[in-house]
Inverse folding.
């Protein structure tokens, strides 16, 4: 090899930086003829703090293999959510198995009013202000999936249906007002 090839740094394509958070690790057992076989189950949440979030859960013989598998699954399941000015644009709720999650918008400066898994999912998704409430099951895996389902159900602003003020003829408006005034005068008598 020539000298100029050795001195030049090797440029590798960079993967987008994702925030990986291990939310929960469980020791699970499978009962076999000779006793129990123990493995580890990991729940991982990943996100880029720019409206993308993914969840993965996997089992492995040791903690590191379980976490690595869960991260790969989370990368495959990454989804984009709709965020409006650092919060969710409207209320959203979802139910997965026994876990029921409600996420509501909050004004700037409120912060995240959420606990446990819901807080982690909202943080890595890039939501800075939101209120949440968890009903039903406290199972962390189902709660995490319910939170992502609630965030997926949020409609973008272009799909919102807004009511437009309908203009009525002046005669209809004046007829209503005369009925109200005559009703009031009869009550007073």
């Amino acid at each position: 090899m020539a000298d100029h090839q050795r001195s030049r740094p090797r440029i590798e394509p960079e993967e987008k930086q994702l925030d990986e958070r291990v939310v929960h690790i469980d020791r699970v057992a499978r009962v076999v003829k000779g006793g129990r076989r123990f493995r580890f189950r990991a729940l991982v949440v990943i996100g880029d703090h720019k409206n993308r979030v993914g969840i993965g859960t996997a089992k492995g013989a040791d903690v590191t293999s379980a976490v690595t598998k869960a991260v790969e699954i989370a990368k495959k399941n990454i989804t984009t959510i709709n965020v409006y000015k650092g919060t969710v644009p409207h209320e959203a709720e979802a139910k997965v198995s026994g876990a029921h999650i409600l996420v509501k918008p909050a004004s700037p400066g409120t912060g995240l009013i959420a606990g446990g898994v819901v807080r982690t999912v909202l943080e890595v998704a890039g939501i800075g202000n939101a209120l949440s409430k968890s009903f039903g099951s406290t199972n962390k895996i189902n709660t995490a999936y319910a939170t992502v389902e609630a965030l997926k159900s949020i409609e973008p602003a272009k799909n919102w249906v807004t009511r437009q003020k309908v203009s009525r003829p002046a005669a209809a408006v004046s007829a209503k007002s005369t009925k109200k005034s005559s009703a009031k005068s009869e009550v007073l008598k």
Residues 170-188 form the longest helix (19 residues). The chain has a mean pLDDT of 83. The longest strand covers residues 19-32. The domain at 19-157 is CATH 3.30.230.10 (Ribosomal Protein S5; domain 2).
